[in-house]
Design a protein that fits this description.
single chain; 480 residues; alpha/beta; UDP-N-acetylmuramoyl-L-alanine:D-glutamate ligase; Protein-Tyrosine Phosphatase, Chain A; 2 domains; six-stranded mixed beta sheet; 17 strands; disordered N terminus; ligase; magnesium
Length: 480
């Protein structure tokens, strides 16, 4: 999602309710004036210059980094929750945001306060300008949106201060601006095809780029011998590439299903019970209030990361804080139920791998007799790869266009959808609001035709921006 792909409704709500709205709007406009997140600069030195000018803020606290293709944000949130349960003050930086840019920066498990976001930005702005001027003198592009936002996040964490930083890589790893930090633990979720124009044409090439977070970019490094925690890799060449990169650097690594993993799982009301073999011990029957086997695996990776950070994997974590942390885990916009009747859930699946786990979770966890999908995607994504899996659980689809210049034309998306659905089951709506209203009508109609035993549902998916708009419309993404 680019920097300009912000939910207008969500930002309007924030502006209306916050006494600091004008200041936040000013700061956000300054950030948006920079090159967006799809205009990537393959470099680290620009971000490093700003961090060093600000007093080496990239070394202000120990760090955990997370890269991969899917599951990064959910896993980062889980790691945050686990470390917080162990009485650490955690700073978390994730992307993209659903409704407000401030969601990307969290301290103590809470979105950074607008006044702190604004104050710290105003403090670092002169230093960003110095770096911009140096880059201009070298005939190079100024700091991008994501580079500046990374510096802002690190400055917020240094200002707090925090005990540990949990950083989600924006794109790739090797040259992503977050990689100015030398992380003590480097986590890898599943690697698949995405952003091939920047990362490589195969999962193996992409994995090598992501393995760049294992490089040490600070001298002397605060974490000269990092640990690696690697999720199970569905792509064999990605698994092989990560193994080679770990071996080449002599890094201690734990692999899911070898060094740790999920060994038992069962469905439960509003979630699932999971039993996990960690790198330091076993953790039986933990309640996880999230749906889908993929979230159980994300939780196993998060627990292994927390063990590696807190004990080096030498002993188990305390049962009580782990149990409490699991019960408190959330993942907004990822298989999130927003309404009960009809069931309306949202999931930010935007690539085939994400759509595949969504389809599996729908089959397992949601007992729906009729499902309408609302689908809005970005133009650079694979509609057929996503629709193949959406067609597994949806009876019909309403295609639409999210509020973004990157959005796929709904006519183009509808054309693709007709190859996977009966043409009569493909409806086109100009906006997410229109699509949601049409989907509700279709769900009600299907339920009335099927009788008392019918249970209709709606799944909004295709991009996190489509999900963000639906959350705002259903009053789950407002400024409160």
């Amino acid at each position: 999602m680019s920097a300009g792909d912000v939910s207008a409704a969500g930002n309007a709500a924030a502006a209306a309710e916050s006494p600091h709205a004008e200041a936040l709007a000013r700061v956000y406009a300054a950030l948006l004036a920079r090159a967006g997140e799809t205009l990537v600069e393959l470099r680290l030195d620009a971000t490093r210059r700003a961090c060093e000018l600000l007093g080496d803020i990239h070394t202000a606290a120990p760090a955990i980094m997370l890269t991969g293709t899917n599951g990064k944000t959910s896993t980062a949130r889980m790691v945050d929750t686990l470390l917080t349960a162990h009485d650490l003050r955690v700073g978390r930086f994730t992307s993209p945001h659903l409704t407000r840019v401030t969601e990307r920066i969290s301290v103590d498990g809470e979105e950074v306060a607008i006044q702190d976001f604004v104050r710290v930005y105003d403090e670092i702005a002169p230093f960003l300008e110095i770096v911009d001027a140096q880059l201009a003198a070298e005939e190079r592009a100024p700091l991008t949106f994501f580079e500046a936002l990374t510096v802002l996040a690190l400055a917020v964490f240094a200002d707090a201060p925090v005990d540990v930083m949990v950083l989600e890589v924006g794109m790739g790893g090797e040259w992503d601006s977050t990689n100015v930090v030398d992380a003590q633990v480097c986590g890898f979720t599943a690697v698949g095809l995405d952003h091939q124009a920047f990362l490589g044409e195969t999962p193996g090439e992409i994995a090598r780029t992501k393995a760049g977070i294992l490089d040490r970019n600070v001298d002397p490094s605060p974490a000269p011998a990092p640990f690696a925690v690697i999720a199970a890799q569905p792509e064999e060449d990605a698994a092989a590439a990560l193994a080679e990169e770990v071996s080449r650097r002599g890094v201690t690594a734990w692999l899911e299903d070898q060094g740790f993993g999920l060994y038992e799982r069962s469905l439960a009301v509003d979630g699932q019970l999971v039993s996990i073999r960690g790198i330091g011990g076993d953790y039986p029957e933990l309640f996880l209030p999230l749906h889908g086997e993929h979230q159980a695996h994300n939780a196993a990776v998060a627990l292994a990361i927390a063990e590696a950070f807190l004990t080096g994997g030498e002993r188990p974590l305390g049962a009580e804080p782990v149990t409490d942390a699991f019960a408190a885990m959330t993942s907004p916009g990822r298989l999130e139920v927003l309404k009960a009747e009809p069931t309306i859930l949202v999931d930010g699946a935007h690539n085939p791998a994400g759509a595949a786990v969504l389809a599996a979770a729908m089959e397992e966890a949601f007992d729906l007799t009729d499902t309408t999908a609302v689908l809005g995607m970005f133009a650079d994504k694979d509609p057929h790869g996503v629709l193949e899996h959406v067609s597994r659980f949806a009876d019909r689809v309403v295609v639409t266009q999210a509020l973004s210049e990157r959005a796929m034309d709904p006519e183009e998306l509808a054309k693709a959808a007709r190859e996977w659905f009966d043409p009569d089951d493909v409806t086109l709506a100009p906006t997410v609001k229109d699509a949601l209203m049409r989907a509700i009508d279709l769900a009600d109609l299907a339920e009335s035709r099927s009788g008392d035993q019918a249970r209709s549902g709606i799944v909004v998916t295709g991009s996190l921006l489509t999900v963000a708009e639906a959350r705002v419309l259903l009053h789950r993404g407002d400024a409160s």
